[in-house]
Amino acid sequence: MTFGQFILNQRKEFGLSQKDLAARIKKEDGAPISAQYLNDLERDRRNPPSDFLLKQLARELKIPLDYIQFLAGQFPEDLREGSYQPETVEKAFLAFRKALKGE
At a CB cut-off of 8 Å and minimum separation 6, what does 63 contact? Predict the structure, then answer.
């Protein structure tokens, strides 16, 4: 499932229109995102948004932030800020893959 498909499904599950959800998500300048922008996200015509908007989408759609960042192809902020050795990252991804596969 893509980021956009998931957002679309969650929005519909909550019974929200694109206009309703867009009005709840504010850009950094305080203005709401447009319903057209949300439509483009849901149709995967735009790249997933910044952390600033992801956090709001996660809150409004009751999605764990880590999961929405995973779908968006982004790392959580605390992981991006660290300095890690290649071997450590490789081991972490191996463990992550095993966990997702249920091994």
Answer: 6, 10, 57
- Total count of domains within the chain: 1
Which run of H or of E encompasses 5? Answer: helix 3-13
Q: What is the tens place of the pLDDT at every residue in 76-89?
A: 888 888 889 999 99
Q: How far apart are CA 66 and CA 10, in angstroms?
A: 16
List phi, psi (to 5°) of 41. Answer: -60, -45
* CATH number reported for the structural domain that contains residue 57 in this entry: 1.10.260.40
Range of the domain at 41: 3-77
- Please state, in angstroms and rounded to a whole number, the distance separating the CA atoms of residues 86 and 72: 23
What is the C-alpha radius of gyration for the chain, rounded to an integer number of angstroms? Answer: 16
The verdict on pTM exceeding 0.90 is: no
Tokens standing for residue 1: 């499932």
